[in-house]
Sequence to fold (845 residues):
Amino acid sequence: MKRLLDRLPGFIFLLIALSALSALALIIVFIFYEGIPIIAKVGLGQFTLGMSWAPGKGEFGILPMIIGTVSVTLGAAVLGVPVAILTSIFLTEFAPAAVSRIVRPAIQLLAGIPSVVYGFWGLTFIVPYIRLWIGGPGLSVLAGSVILAIMILPTVISITEVSLLALPRTYKEGSLAIGATQWQTVWSVQLPAAKSGIMAAVILGIGRAVGETMAVIMVLGNAVALPESLLDPARTLTTNIGIEMGYASGDHQQALFATGIVLLVIVMSLNSIAQATLKRSQR
Amino acid sequence: MMRLNPKMTQVLAKALIWGSALLVIVLLLFILLFVLIKGVPTLSWQFLTENPRDMGRSGGIFSTIVSTILVTLVSVAVATPFGVGTALYLTEFTREGLATRIIRFSADTLAAIPSIVYGLFGFIFFVINLNMGWSILSGGLTMAMMILPTIIRTAEEAILAIHPLYREVSFSLGGTKMQTILGAVLPSALRGIMTGVILSIGRCVAETAAVILTAGSSLRLPESVFSPARTMAVHFYILVREGISMERAYGTAAALIILILIINVGANMLINRFVAKNH
Amino acid sequence: MNPLFSDRMRNRNLLRLAGMILVSLGLLLVSGCSQAQKAHQIIIAGSTSVQPFAEILAEEYMKMHPDISIDIQGGGSSSGIKAALSGTAAIGMSSRDLKGDELSLWSAEIARDGLAIIVHPDNTVNELTSAQVQDIYIKAVDNWAQLGGQDGNIHLFTREEGSGTRDAFVSLAMDNADVTPKAMVQDSNGAVRQLVGDDPGAIGYISLGLVNEQVKPVVLDGVAASHANIINGSYKLSRPFLFVSNGDPVGIAKDFIDFVLSEEGRQILTREGLVTRDAEVQS
Fold:
């Protein structure tokens, strides 16, 4: 009897701990439940590869949105990852302690800024200048990429930093001992050694970019057509849902849930790859 | 390709590296100052304590502040017990195995789900299926799921960081597992857990996509958790999109940013004291 | 002094505080339960064009009846009509005529609203014909020079598909032709006005009542967009603002609608820039 009572707390806590699993299961079940019927109706190929999104006419092809997500995310990675990696190197290798004490909280703060504020800032400062100095309406894939690049900085920086700090000190000390400069050590020894961790950081940053909605809605222009250049307006999977969810019903609403399914699949895949890569780097 | 003198590459690299860090700081300051310079002039006691009038064209933002606080309160109140309980389970009641791997995978995946998908789920599950309607409750419960991973992660870290001595002493004093947990582990881990809670509060305050689909956008002062509510972030978004009152939009944003600054500073202070204490 | 003890004391108080917060939250929830189903509360949902006006009317009404609460949601004309049909909302707002199954709903026209086609104040083009507007919106024409203006790409703005404003535009100004998928989509009148006001190459359409000095309304087929011209019928782009409900309105809904249709209600709407029946009769 005492044995049972002793095990009771453990059992109760197990139930509590299963909350995370239940929440995840609930989300997946509901999103799939709401979205699968329309995919069945329209056909998976037609849905994911269809070029035309026109709910009024019953057309539900999300390829333009997939391309939109991919372009904006890729742009964000191209612009943001180098800055993030360089900044991580700064924090781990080159920054005086006093400066780190300012830069680190600053990066945390950057992560806390609401995405609507980012969007508004982008609308005020990025969009007009793209329109004036480069071309197009300003509301464009480029604007989205710039904003997202800034937004993923904290994620990529923090995980890259962790990976760099996890390296055995002998790597660095050995390299410096044979006369390499600090930068040579970073470039030829530390970065390659932390490769898996950095990959994971980038993938998680990309996952963050894929999931962003509010900032992007304000600067992308949201045209339904396929973007043909960096300066064209576009729509992502997330902004598609964001713009139309307020009034969609019936098939249209189901199609938005189906878009949610696609998003879940993409994000969960990215996340699993990143976690696996991270585990590999910790071995 | 001609090989540059290693000293030269070092100088060049250092310039780029310092430049990157500087860029990050400059961007942060740019965004913060933009909002604060334009918004702080609008902030006044009256602005913060008056309700919006005329769809937000005049008046203040009191109802949105209350809504924000209530949604955050609900989500933290729901997520914290489950989050801390999960962390306790992972640290105190099992070893690493299938169960822990599944739980961690679930938590990590929850953390990666886009907020708009949370909004979709919250809308169909809480608002429609459970018939809670657009309400603080719907918004709070949805947000609770969003912040659960953060609470689990920080609680676990906090518990693991406790000097084993605390537990030794409690056990040796004859405490059972539960007594050890309640009397020794939790109180000592409290600061670390609070840090996670405060960071989650920051997340709730900043969230828009999930909240607008579950808590609605009614401007009135909420009467209970069943009332629809407009949080500050949602209010800012609507003011800006509709061009209703740029002045008040900046004011709302400034209030938001200041709130987030306070939250971040608070969390940092806690972390520093927590880290210092355990050395 | 035993360091364990002082920490425990302090943390025990923190735990007590946390407990109190949770308890008060519980009380809040419980008190909420009793207030959940108020008899004197209604929801109005629908067109974002009608919404600002409905909110002003509701504000006035609630000043006169402090015990009644009216919650107003956006979502677009289509969603408002559906909400009324399903009973989710007591009153639905629409900025377009009802069609098909929707005609089973009770409806009342609370005002007429003009649709203005707007360009940037610096745009040298001041007048357009309907044919030209169509050409612009199907992308048969994409440079202002082709319309007699300065060389520059036309940046096209439209509303989202569920919008009554868009519906009205498509049926009245486009002869029901399809808007090009390349048009940039925004989800509110205000957003369109903002973006057109910022971009010299932009064109869009918004509620006449929302036109301000940021943008310039275009003279359509020789007729200026003004209230007078809507009343005398010469300006063709006008659409009804409707309140709809499932069956004849009762209770608070009826009282509110009576208020809106009364002299006082109509004065408020006219003051805000709409055209009401009163004004029609007077001219």
The first strand of chain C starts at residue 41 and ends at 46.
